[in-house]
């Protein structure tokens, strides 16, 4: 998330751990932090104050990414009702909230997201060309893999940017980052 190292050398480690910069404080107090913690009351309060539901952090993660990754289904529902973009992609790897939920094994959230975004959300590819099934295999999430294969079998024939099928993702030789393989 943010770098917690400090360039000031005259503070001991004891004091550094309690020192926050403004961006960290904004995160903690804002919709991103509330979504990460699953603080639904805070999320609702901020949304009632017309906070932008799709505001990203410096890495492109939105509140929906954080809630999905941390298995806060009730927060995801509130965010989606407020207009959260289920197709929002992170800056570095182009991951959607559905990719995060699939990797982490959060089936209820994945189903909730699909209910809003439909099959195209599952087919959506990150910067490596990987869909939700690739991410489920990468995270070794049998419950997600089984559901996706049963409900959306066409996902199993999608190759990523390196020509790798979902069921091969996660095997040790293929765990290199896609950009390293494309060089």
CATH architecture: Alpha Horseshoe
User: Count of DSSP helices?
Assistant: 12
CATH superfamily: Ankyrin repeat-containing domain
CATH class: Mainly Alpha
Number of domains: 1
Q: Do you know the CATH topology?
A: Serine Threonine Protein Phosphatase 5, Tetratricopeptide repeat
Mind describing the biggest β-sheet? none
Span between termini: 27 Å
| Structural class determined from secondary elements | mainly alpha
How many strand units?
0
Helix content: 40-55%
Strand content: under 5%
The helix-strand sequence is HHHHHHHHHHHH
Shape: elongated
Averaged pLDDT = 84
Our Rg estimate from Cα atoms comes to: 18 Å
**Uncertain stretches of 5 or more adjacent residues:** 1-17, 179-183
InterPro entries: Ankyrin_rpt, Ankyrin_rpt-contain_sf
Pfam families: Ank_2 (PF12796)
ANK repeats: 59-91, 93-125
Keywords: ANK repeat, Repeat
